[in-house]
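ok new one. same drill as before - structure tokens go in, u give me an amino acid for every spot. 418 of them this time. try not to just spam alanines like last time pls lmao
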């Protein structure tokens, strides 16, 4: 008659689901009720219900035999005892729908019917399994309290009064304790399943967050890498558009810069797309990984494009700068040069970098106001926002804004551990 449950995970197959109690299935799948909103009985439920009924009939039959052989009991009372016992055994089939009512009724019937003893035990077990402790304490306590009165009214012909009361109380306590144990196991199963569901949900959220962060990192990288190249294309194409009288040498030079920038932009884009297709999980694995030592090349590239850039490098050993700090500083300089080329064409830009281990690294990109009209160059306006986030993630801070002379300055302060 045990209603114990299998280990967590046993519900994973339809065949095993039929071996679980309906109350457990309702807890596992609360959105799949049976008819009339009640949980549908499983195969296990039917087996347990049949066993409960047979056990109550067996115990009732033994008690009825004892009552029939008692010469001190009138025949009319014997008939009433057995009739009430039959009704109590038949009522066992209602134990899942009406456990409280069944327990109360059988406890009261037990005062006049020994044949209902089996039904009483089944009812107490059922209420201990299916109802909270207050119900169990009230009805079980009432049953124990009525036990001495029962044996005063209907003494057992085979046992003295005190042993009869003690044995009945022990049997009642055992059945109730067993039912409470089954209930606790059932609640443990449901709590483990709920915990597993929460763990799966949290894992899915972590994966989603990691994917979102990876997409944001790739978007920042694409912006940093391609904005610099595409700005060169836009500036030189605009120069050709607004200077139709340029000499052949100037046109050839500008066309060469455009071709070279387009080629490098395609290479960078191909490299990033390759990372996406390969599905590498590193933060920036396989992507362009410039360091502070590459700052000289970035300035030289800008100069070749016709931009006036002054580099003030006060770092004794750029190779000693940590890779993450150097990469962040390089991106700040790249974005600063890109913005200066877009918003202050023709102005001389100063890139200053200084620092030492333990003191931190400071990189500044500043430019005066543009000397002439500024052609409109499209932009997303997200560059400085992305830079601020990048520098913050590196443990530093980014300061940017207009200068008193009408120019603009971007200053990044990055940590450099000693």
């Amino acid at each position: 008659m045990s209603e114990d449950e299998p280990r967590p995970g046993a519900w994973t197959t339809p065949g095993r689901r039929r071996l679980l109690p309906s109350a457990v299935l309702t807890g596992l799948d609360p959105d799949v009720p049976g008819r009339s909103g009640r949980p549908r009985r499983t195969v296990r439920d039917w087996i347990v219900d049949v066993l409960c009924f047979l056990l109550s009939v067996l115990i009732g039959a033994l008690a009825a035999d004892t009552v029939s052989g008692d010469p001190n009991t009138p025949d009319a009372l014997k008939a009433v005892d057995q009739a009430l016992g039959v009704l109590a055994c038949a009522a066992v089939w209602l134990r899942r729908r009406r456990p409280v009512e069944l327990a109360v009724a059988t406890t009261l019937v037990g005062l006049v019917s020994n044949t209902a003893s089996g039904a009483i035990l089944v009812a107490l077990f059922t209420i201990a399994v299916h109802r909270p402790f207050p119900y169990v304490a009230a009805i079980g306590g009432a049953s124990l309290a009525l036990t001495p009165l029962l044996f005063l009214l209907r003494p057992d012909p085979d046992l003295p009064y005190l042993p009869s009361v003690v044995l009945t109380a022990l049997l009642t306590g055992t059945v109730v304790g067993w039912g409470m144990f089954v209930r606790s196991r059932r609640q443990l199963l449901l709590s483990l399943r709920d915990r597993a569901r929460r763990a799966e949900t949290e894992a899915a959220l972590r994966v989603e967050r990691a994917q979102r962060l990876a997409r944001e990192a790739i978007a920042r990288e694409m912006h940093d890498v391609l904005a610099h190249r595409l700005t060169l294309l836009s500036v030189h194409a605009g120069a050709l558009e607004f200077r139709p009288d340029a000499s052949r040498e100037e046109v050839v030079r500008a066309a060469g810069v455009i071709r070279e920038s387009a080629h490098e932009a395609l290479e960078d884009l191909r490299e990033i797309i390759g990372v996406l297709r390969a599905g590498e999980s590193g933060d920036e694995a396989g992507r362009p990984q410039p360091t502070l030592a590459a700052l000289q090349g970035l300035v030289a590239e800008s100069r070749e494009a016709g931009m006036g850039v002054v580099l003030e490098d006060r770092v004794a050993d750029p190779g000693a700068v940590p890779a993450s700090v150097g990469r962040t500083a390089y991106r700040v300089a790249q974005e600063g040069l890109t913005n200066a080329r877009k918003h202050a064409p023709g102005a001389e830009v100063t890139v200053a970098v200084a620092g030492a281990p333990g003191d931190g690294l400071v990189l500044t990109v500043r430019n005066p106001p543009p000397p002439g009209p500024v052609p409109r160059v499209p932009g997303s306006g997200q560059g400085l926002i992305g830079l601020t986030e990048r520098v913050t993630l590196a443990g530093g801070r980014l300061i940017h804004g207009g200068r008193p002379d009408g120019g603009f300055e971007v200053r990044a302060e990055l940590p450099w551990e000693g």
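The beta strands are 309-314, 349-356, 360-367, 397-402, 408-414. and btw The chain has a mean pLDDT of 79.
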